[in-house]
């Protein structure tokens, strides 16, 4: 059996990721080394048209690492605590 192409399985609820600016810039800004600045990631998120969908996804799925929807891990944790 010869496979000419690889098929990527995508989930309809993640289609918004295709339009995300982070998908065009790479993950380095959004998953920095501990203690590194997240300023550049937040700047990119601030211009992103799907920022709210990204943040909602991160909160719904308890993403613990990286910048999602313009918020760092600590900021998302604080948001979860204050919204209870």
Brief overview:
39% of the residues lie in helices and 0% in strands. The protein has 84 residues and is an all-alpha fold.
Description:
This protein has 84 residues and is mainly alpha-helical. It is globular and about 30 Å long. 19% of the residues are buried. Helix content is 39%, strand content 0%. The chain has one domain.
Can you tag this structure with a few keywords?
84 residues; metal-binding; 4 helices; 4FE4S_WBL; 39% helix; 4Fe-4S; Whib; mainly alpha; disordered N terminus
What share of residues is helical?
A: 25-40%
Label the structural class: mainly alpha
| Topology as a string of helices (H) and strands (E) | HHHH
Alpha carbon gyration radius: 15 Å
Low-confidence stretches: 1-9
Instruction: Please indicate the percent range of residues in DSSP E strands (runs of 2 or more).
Output: under 5%
Architecture blueprint of SSEs:
Layout: H1 22-25, H2 39-47, H3 51-60, H4 73-82
